[in-house]
Design goal:
The complex is a heterodimer of chains A (323) and B (225). Chain A is an alpha+beta fold and 323 residues long. Chain A is built from 8 helices and 13 strands. In chain A, strands 1, 4, 5, 8, 9, 10, 12 and 13 form an 8-stranded mixed sheet that branches. A 5-stranded mixed sheet of chain A has the order 3-2-11-6-7. In chain A, strand 2 and strand 3 form a beta hairpin. Classes of the chains: A alpha+beta (323), B mainly alpha (225). The structure holds protoporphyrin IX containing FE (HEM).
Chain lengths: 323, 225
C-alpha cells in the first residue's frame, strides 16, 4: 500500500514537518512585516511635506494691532509652513499629522463651557463670544519648546475682554483651558500619549495681559483646523504648548491647575514655561532656535522678545525654579 | 539555490543600490522641496532612523540564515553593517551642521580658525551635556571599530575568534541606539517601542538558539543536512 498509515510516520518526520511549517510561517511573517515597514516608510516619506490647509472664509473688519512684533528682518512665515508643520497631538504626534487628519474636526456648532470661580458661567456659543469684539491682526513670534520658531499673523482679540465679561470672582487666581478631546474626530486622542483633555493654565494676571489673545484666524482668514480652529489661545512670551487649541472649556480656579505636559514630565515642563534662553530644557538647548525657513539659528530672546511688556509680571520670581 | 556569481554580480549590486535609496531620496526631496517645513530636522531624523533600520537588518541576517538555511545570506552582512555606519555618520554630520554649526557665532567670519575651534567645543559640550546625545555618540563610536575592521585583512589580522568577539559590539550598539531614540522622544514612545521589540526579538533568537544547540547537540547535527 502506498498510503502510509498514520502510525507508520516516524515522529521525527512530524517534527520536521512542523519545523518546516514554522519556518515558512516565520519567513512569511517576516516578509509581511518588512513589507509593512517599507510601505509605512514610503507613506511617511510621501506625506513628509504635509498638506497645506484649504483657504477659509475671510474675516471682516480686521484692524492692525499696535501690539504686533516689530518684525524688521524677521519674515512672516508662509501659509504653507504654518499649516503643515504643527504640534497638535490630538491629531497625531508627527508634525504633518494635523495637516492630514484635522479635516475630521467639526467646528460648527462650537460652544465653550465657562465655569469655576466666575459670576457668569455657562455654555457660550462662538458667535456670542465674538459679538462686539474688534478683531485685530497680531503678528507674533511663536517659539516651540523643541527649539524651532515661526512668525505668525494671528487674528484675534484680547483674552482679557472675554475674562472681564464672565466676571471672575475674588477667589479666582488661575484660568484653565481645555482642548476638545473627541476620539471620533481626533485620531490622536485614541492613544494615551498625554492626559486628555489637553489642559493648560495661566495665572489670572497673565491672562489679563494685553498681549494674550484668543485667536480665531490667521492671514485674514478663519483659523485652519490644524492650527486650533475655531478658537485658541495665544500667549506669545511662552512656549507654544501653553497656547491651547480648539478650546471647549475655560475654568477659573483658586488653586494652580496641573497642565498635561507638566503632568507627563514634571522635570521638563513647568507651570510657567516662559521662553527663557538661560534655562535649558534637558533635551533641547533653549539658547538658540531654528526659525522655520532659515538655515542659521537665531538667538532666543528672553520672553520671546516680549520682555519689555511682560517681565514685570514675574518681578521677584526665581525663573530658574519657576520654569 | 542562487549561484555564487549571481550573488556577487547581481544580488549584491542590487542590494547596494537599494540601500542608497534613502539617501538618494533625501537629497532629491531636499532639493525639490518635498520635505517638511523644517527640512534640516527631517534630514537628521531620517538618517537616524535609517541607521537604526540597518542595525536591525544586520542583526536579522543570522536568524534569517538559520531559519531559512540559506547560508549565503551571510555575504550581505558586511554591506548592511557598513550602511548602518554610513547612515549613522550622515546623521551625525547633519547634526553637526544643522544643530551645531548653524548655531555658532562667527566673530572672525565663517572661514576662520575660530569657527573650527568653536564648532568642536560646541559639539563636545553638547555630547557632554545632553544624555540622549551622549548615548547617540556612544552608538556611533561603537560602530566605528566594526566598520574599520570589516575588511578581510582585519579578519585575518585579528583571527576569527577575536574578530567575532569584537563584532559582538553590534549588540551593545543596537541597545544604545534604542536608548538614544527612547530618550529623545517627547511623549509618544510607540516608534522606539517597536524598534525595541524588533531588537529584543533578534537578540532573544540568539539566546534561544545557543541554548537549544547546547542542549541537543545530536539533533543539531542531523538538522544541518
Ligand atoms: C549610529 C548611531 C545612531 C542611531 C542609530 C541614531 C538613531 C536616531 C533615531 C532613530 C532618531 C529619531 C528619528 C525620528 O524621531 O524620526 C535620532 C534622532 C536624533 N539623533 Fe541620533 N542616532 C545615532 C547617533 C547620533 C549621534 C552620534 C548624534 C549626535 C551626536 C545624534 C543626534 C540626534 C539628534 C540631534 C536627533 C534629533 C532629535 C530631535 O528631533 O530633536 N544621533 N537618532
Amino acid at each position: 500500500m502506498l498510503i502510509k498509515h498514520p502510525s507508520d510516520i516516524r515522529s521525527s518526520e512530524i517534527t520536521d514537518q512542523k519545523l518546516y511549517a514554522n519556518r515558512r510561517e516565520f519567513i512569511m511573517a517576516a516578509g509581511a512585516a518588512a513589507g509593512a515597514a517599507l510601505l509605512s516608510g514610503a507613506n511617511r516619506v510621501l506625506h513628509a511635506a504635509g498638506q497645506p490647509a484649504p483657504h477659509g472664509r475671510k474675516l471682516d473688519g480686521v484692524i492692525k494691532s499696535p501690539f504686533s512684533a516689530a518684525v524688521g528682518d524677521e519674515k512672516v512665515n508662509t501659509w504653507e509652513q504654518i499649516t503643515t508643520y504643527n504640534n497638535f497631538y490630538e491629531f497625531g504626534t508627527e508634525k504633518e499629522s494635523p495637516s492630514m487628519y484635522a479635516k475630521a474636526l467639526k467646528t460648527e456648532p462650537w460652544r465653550v463651557r465657562v465655569d469655576g470661580e466666575c459670576a457668569k458661567p455657562g455654555d457660550y456659543h462662538i458667535d456670542d463670544i465674538l459679538k462686539g469684539q474688534t478683531l485685530e491682526e497680531r503678528v507674533y513670534r511663536l517659539r516651540c519648546v523643541e527649539a524651532w520658531s515661526m512668525v505668525v499673523p494671528w487674528i484675534g482679540f484680547p483674552l482679557s475682554n472675554f475674562v472681564k465679561r464672565v466676571e471672575p470672582t475674588a477667589k479666582a487666581k488661575f484660568i484653565e483651558f481645555n482642548t476638545l478631546a473627541d476620539p471620533s474626530q481626533m485620531v490622536g486622542v485614541r492613544s494615551p500619549v498625554l492626559r486628555w483633555p489637553y489642559t493648560e493654565a495661566l495665572r489670572l494676571d497673565e491672562a489679563m495681559h494685553p498681549l494674550a489673545i484668543l485667536a480665531v484666524g490667521l492671514y485674514g482668514e478663519e483659523m485652519p483646523k490644524q492650527d486650533g480652529a475655531p478658537i485658541r489661545l495665544i500667549v506669545p512670551w511662552k512656549y507654544g504648548f501653553k497656547s491651547a487649541k480648539s478650546i471647549v472649556r475655560i475654568r477659573f480656579t483658586e488653586r494652580q491647575p496641573l497642565n498635561s505636559w507638566q503632568e507627563s514630565q514634571p522635570s521638563e515642563y513647568g507651570f510657567y514655561s516662559n521662553v527663557n534662553p538661560a534655562v535649558d530644557h534637558p533635551r533641547w538647548t533653549q539658547a538658540t532656535e531654528r526659525r522655520i525657513g532659515e538655515f542659521f539659528r537665531r538667538k532666543t530672546l528672553m520672553f520671546n522678545g516680549y520682555a519689555d511688556q511682560v517681565a514685570s509680571l514675574y518681578s521677584g520670581m526665581d525663573l530658574k525654579r519657576n520654569y | 539555490m542562487i549561484s555564487a556569481s549571481a550573488i556577487r554580480w547581481v544580488l549584491k549590486p542590487a542590494v547596494f543600490v537599494a540601500a542608497l535609496g534613502p539617501v538618494g531620496w533625501l537629497v532629491w526631496a531636499g532639493l525639490t522641496g518635498h520635505l517638511s517645513a523644517n527640512p534640516l530636522s527631517d534630514l537628521t531624523n531620517e538618517t537616524g532612523l535609517w541607521a537604526l533600520r540597518f542595525i536591525c537588518i544586520t542583526l536579522a541576517i543570522t536568524p534569517f540564515r538559520r531559519l531559512t538555511g540559506w547560508h549565503a545570506a551571510i555575504r550581505f552582512r558586511r554591506m548592511t553593517g557598513l550602511f548602518a555606519f554610513f547612515y549613522g555618520s550622515l546623521h551625525f554630520l547633519t547634526y553637526v551642521i544643522a544643530d551645531r554649526f548653524a548655531g555658532l557665532d562667527f566673530p572672525d567670519g565663517i572661514v576662520a580658525w575660530s569657527t573650527v575651534v568653536n564648532l568642536a567645543v560646541s559639539v563636545g559640550d553638547d555630547i557632554y551635556k545632553r544624555p540622549f546625545i551622549t548615548i547617540g555618540f556612544t552608538t556611533l563610536m561603537l560602530l566605528l571599530p566594526l566598520a574599520v575592521t570589516s575588511t578581510a585583512g582585519w579578519i585575518r589580522r585579528l583571527g576569527g575568534k577575536q574578530w567575532q568577539a569584537l563584532h559582538r559590539l553590534i549588540y551593545v550598539a543596537a541597545l544604545t541606539a534604542i536608548l538614544h531614540y527612547w530618550w529623545l522622544v517627547k511623549a509618544d514612545l510607540t516608534s522606539p517601542q517597536r524598534y525595541a521589540l524588533v531588537v529584543g526579538a533578534l537578540l532573544m533568537f540568539r539566546l534561544v538558539w545557543a541554548r537549544s544547540r547546547a542542549s541537543a547537540p545530536v539533533r543539531q547535527k542531523s538538522a544541518t543536512t
